[in-house]
Amino acid sequence: MRFLYGLKEFLLRGNVVDMGIGIIIGTAFSKIVQSFVSDIVMPPIGLLLSSTDFSELYLNLSGTKYASLQDAQAAGAATINVGLFIETLIHFLIVAFAVYLFIIQVNKVRNVPIEQTRFTTCSYCYTTISSLASRCPNCTSNLNGTPSSNHDRMKVRFK
């Protein structure tokens, strides 16, 4: 029962739910990009390459002539599918570019000031902490220059 409670807590964390939503949206986006590449980008490229269907570009390794890629695959011939590979490559580049643009926007929204990324060391317990902290999270000492009363007593004891 404890395992199921831990699993529930893990699955309901914001990061896991966000990741799940990202995967679903990414799958849908991938289908849109695939259609964009196959139906909009590749036909003009095929037209430029003497009116051929770009997905039909392949190298036949068996030596037998086939009318199309589907015929060669149905016959079990070994083929190198150049056109399909180039379509997949263009698909990947579009998705990678979109993800890059998304990451740039997320970083602009998050815009963390430089001071928040700097760290300092607590002079009492030597824990690395944010330079904006007013108290050490480890030993709870006051970091604004005035030590807390607890540390004053400790200094007196150890002197």
TrEMBL record:
Statement: the UniProt record of this protein carries the keyword Glycosyltransferase: no
This protein's UniProt keywords: Cell membrane, Ion channel, Ion transport, Membrane, Transmembrane, Transmembrane helix, Transport
InterPro entries: MS_channel (IPR001185), MSC/AndL (IPR037673), MscL_channel (IPR036019)
Subcellular localization: Cell membrane; Membrane
Transmembrane segments: 12-33, 82-103
Function recorded in the entry: Channel that opens in response to stretch forces in the membrane lipid bilayer. May participate in the regulation of osmotic pressure changes within the cell.
Record protein name field: Large-conductance mechanosensitive channel
Gene (UniProt): mscL
